[in-house]
Structures are given as structure tokens and as C-alpha cells.
Design goal:
By secondary structure, this protein is α/β, with parallel strands linked by helices. The protein has a domain at 19-163 and 192-223 and 270-280: 3-Layer(aba) Sandwich (Rossmann fold), CATH 3.40.50.150. It has twelve helices and eight strands. Strands 1, 2, 3, 4, 5, 6, 7 and 8 form an eight-stranded mixed sheet that branches. Strand 1, helix 4 and strand 2 form a beta-alpha-beta unit.
């Protein structure tokens, strides 16, 4: 899942602050189940390499994934031999995840983290969430994660958001006029984060009283899109899914027009991720 509601092409890490907003916008992702696996970017292999270097998880460790969507972040860990329980509230997304993960030791349960009740006495070596943690009730997430972890177990959180290098593609600035026109612009003080400058949640993690931060590492990478593949990406973002059809028609028409004027017909989008690893405190 995306770390903001992405109404604007400024993919600021914009948390949804109320339970009703979380439910309303979070539910939109299930409409994009067919697009999600191919349209969303893969996380760089370096994310998983760093995660396993820090945690030193043993072979065959049991992991719990919160909000697996179609399994974008599940496959790289399942392919390394871990046994994973995935929680996904969307019916269509959960069905897609089961199909994508059928060759691995993975169980996909259609439920939210808040509603899920673990079966049996076993605990997990790691709880993780990839671009999904902010959809979980902040009054529940850290406490419940600590409760289902082994002593000394890890919580790992990472995301995929838009970053803006100084030599980045100017189309994202240009398109802000269209977002404003259709009533989906961002506030004037919205940040345009540079690569390696995304905010992290270390203060929130420590303030939970359940975890100590073990490592925070930032990653960035570039993906090129033609008009149709970029529009498919936007159609997996909750804010764009929730737009009225006339809004999407106006915005997507402008994206197609601008890219048709380019010799290669493509744009460059820079992605950033913050990998945050925390260890459960001793009781």
C-alpha cells in the first residue's frame, strides 16, 4: 500500500489521521488489485539485504506481514526461505496475494491487523509492513506488534514515496497546476523531499515504549514510465482512485498530452524508501 493518499503528484508522506479516513481511503486499494502487482515498483534488493544484515534472522524464521497487498514485499522474503503469515484486509488483494505466493511457505489471511487474533502460542521473529503501517490504528500498532513478537524480535517498516532530486523531471512541478484546477492540490507549504531526506518515525517508535530503534537507512532509485504505465501507477494510489471520473480524465489527458510532446514519450520518477528497524524491548 502507498504511504500517502497521493491526491497530488507530490507523494508526501501524509498520514491519514482519523479512523474513518483510514477505512475509506484504505478500502480503495482493493479496486486496484489487478493493477497493483505490475504497476507498483519493486523495492530495491538492497532493502532486503540491509534488513537481513541488521536482524540476522535465522533460516526458516516465522514472519508476520501487515498489509501485504498482492505480495510485492512478500516474495523477496519468502524466496529466502522464511515462513510468513500475511494479513490483508482487501478481498481481491488477498486473493491476488494467494495466487502470487502459492509456491512459498506463506499463509494469507483476509483481515486487518487490528482485528486479527493469532492462533496458537507461537510468536514471530519479525513483524514487518511495506508502505502499509500508517493505515494501522496508531493506538494499536506498536503494542500489538510487541505482543506477537518473540523476546528480542524485530519490527521493520519501509515505504515507497516520491522524492525530487535537483535534476529531476520537471513534469511534476508543471502538473501541479492541473491538480489545483481539479481541486486536488496540496497546501502551499507541502515539502518536496530530496533523495536521502525523507522523514522517519524514530521518535514515534521510541515513544511507543515497546521498541528501540536499531537501524534507519534510506534508499532511492529511478523508474521511467510512458503515459499509460504512469497512469496505471496513479490508478493504484488511494487519492487518485477516489477522484471523480472527470478529475481523472482531465489529469490523465494532460499527462498524455505532455508526454506525447517528448521525443521518447517518457517521464522519470524518483522513488525513495526509509527502512526502519526496531527491536522489541525486554519486558
Amino acid at each position: 500500500m502507498n504511504s500517502s493518499d497521493d491526491r497530488s503528484v507530490l507523494a508526501k508522506n501524509q498520514c491519514v489521521t482519523t479512523g474513518s479516513d483510514r477505512s475509506r481511503l484504505g478500502a480503495t486499494f482493493d479496486q486496484a488489485a489487478e493493477l497493483y502487482q505490475r504497476a507498483r515498483p519493486d523495492y530495491p534488493n538492497e532493502v532486503y539485504d540491509r534488513l537481513l544484515h541488521v536482524t540476522q534472522l535465522p533460516d526458516g524464521a516465522r514472519l508476520l506481514e501487515v498489509g501485504c497487498a498482492t505480495g510485492k514485499a512478500t516474495v523477496p522474503l519468502a524466496s529466502r526461505g522464511f515462513w510468513i503469515t500475511c494479513l490483508e484486509p482487501g478481498r481481491s488483494l488477498a486473493a491476488a496475494a494467494r495466487k502470487n505466493l502459492s509456491a512459498f511457505h506463506v499463509e494469507v489471511l483476509q483481515t486487518t491487523f487490528e482485528d486479527w487474533e493469532p492462533s496458537g502460542p507461537s510468536r514471530f521473529a519479525m513483524v514487518y509492513a511495506a508502505t502499509a503501517w500508517h493505515w494501522v490504528d496508531p493506538n494499536v500498532r506498536y503494542l500489538k506488534a510487541a505482543e506477537v513478537l518473540e523476546p528480542g524480535g524485530y519490527l521493520a517498516l519501509w515505504n515507497a514515496g516520491h522524492v525530487f532530486p535537483r535534476d529531476g523531471d520537471p513534469i511534476f512541478v508543471e502538473l501541479q497546476r492541473v491538480y489545483d484546477e481539479i481541486g486536488e492540490g496540496m497546501p502551499p507549504d507541502t515539502a518536496w523531499p530530496r533523495p536521502q531526506e525523507l522523514p522517519d518515525d524514530r521518535d514515534e517508535i521510541e515513544a511507543s515504549g515497546q521498541f528501540d530503534v536499531a537501524d534507519i537507512t534510506q534508499f532511492d532509485w529511478e523508474v521511467t514510465y510512458d503515459a499509460e504505465t504512469y497512469i496505471e501507477l496513479l490508478d493504484t494510489f488511494s487519492g487518485h482512485i477516489a477522484m471523480a471520473q472527470w478529475q481523472r480524465d482531465r489529469l490523465y489527458g494532460e499527462i498524455r498530452r505532455r508526454l506525447a510532446e517528448r521525443e521518447d514519450g517518457r517521464l522519470r520518477r524518483h522513488w525513495g524508501a526509509v527502512l526502519q528497524i526496531a527491536r522489541r524491548r525486554s519486558a
